[in-house]
Amino acid sequence: MVLELREHALDLTRVRLMGVLNVTPDSFSDGGRYLTVEAALLQARRMIAEGADLIDLGGESTRPGAQPVPVEEEKRRVLPLLEALLELGVPISVDTRKPEVAQAALELGAHLLNDVTGLRDARMLELAARYRVPVVIMHMPVPDPQTMMQHAHYDDVVAEVKAFLARQAARAIEAGVPQVVLDPGIGFGKRLEHNLELIRRLDELAALGHPVLLGASRKRMIGELTGVEAPAERVLGTVAAHLYGAARGAHILRVHDVRAHREALAVWEALEGGR
């Protein structure tokens, strides 16, 4: 399986790492650390040196309860940095739910759209089709981070997430989007038991035939399971969750701690290859 990202082609026969780069003051884990182009570019270079296969750039926090960011402010945060990142030689994903930001990023040359609202806005479909770029379709029960945890109620979380992703993927392909990547949305309108079940049964999402992205990095569920309160210290628990997900079909892991994941994957892949 190959993910075509404009001039880049990402071979997904091995697990790939998407490095998280948040240029926000309020992200749950690293908010405020990379607010200047210089600081963010340094972090991007560090992640690439440690083994990141692509970088996911976000200018708006979508943690539970996060306040929305105006379009022009999100553009101000993202676009100057995006221009610099495009010179680094790896695919750049833009994490946005705003068509105006998506269009500006695609005009500059972004390779992938990461839409946490799951392509509910038809304008995002049209943009991805027009610019011929893949889209990450993520599940959350409602398209609003401020209220999503009020809707964390499921009869069968895997069946409901799978149905949503299958429906949105079919809609995207029909609209002309070249490829889609499916993300179960760990922590987005989901409680601990929902997150665990989604990772346990990730192979059911992979069975839909599209690449699967898993992003549990440093999230609350890791803290709940390990007792580690500081998000930046949840590295070991994150790696464990992600390796488990990789064994069940995840093609891309969205991570803050690239080096730890690259080392863990090197050992895991060697063991898997010996079967």
Automatic annotation (TrEMBL):
Reaction equations catalysed: (7,8-dihydropterin-6-yl)methyl diphosphate + 4-aminobenzoate = 7,8-dihydropteroate + diphosphate
Gene Ontology terms, MF aspect: dihydropteroate synthase activity; metal ion binding
Keywords for this protein: Folate biosynthesis, Magnesium, Metal-binding, Transferase
Lineage top rank: taxon: Bacteria
Pfam families listed in its UniProt record: Pterin_bind
Entry keyword annotation includes DNA-binding: no
Cofactor requirement: Mg(2+)
PROSITE patterns for the chain: DHPS_1, DHPS_2, PTERIN_BINDING
The EC number(s) this enzyme carries: 2.5.1.15
Pathway(s) where this gene product acts: Cofactor biosynthesis; tetrahydrofolate biosynthesis; 7,8-dihydrofolate from 2-amino-4-hydroxy-6-hydroxymethyl-7,8-dihydropteridine diphosphate and 4-aminobenzoate: step 1/2
InterPro entries reported for this sequence: DHP_synth-like, DHP_synth_dom, Dihydropteroate_synth-like_sf, Pterin-binding_dom
Keyword Transferase: yes
Domain Pterin-binding, first and last residues per copy: 15-266
Stored Gene3D superfamilies: Dihydropteroate synthase-like
One of the GO BP terms on file: folic acid biosynthetic process
GO cellular component: cytosol
Function: Catalyzes the condensation of para-aminobenzoate (pABA) with 6-hydroxymethyl-7,8-dihydropterin diphosphate (DHPt-PP) to form 7,8-dihydropteroate (H2Pte), the immediate precursor of folate derivatives.
Family in the record: Belongs to the DHPS family.
Name of the molecule in the record: Dihydropteroate synthase
Organism expressing this protein natively: Marinithermus hydrothermalis (strain DSM 14884 / JCM 11576 / T1)
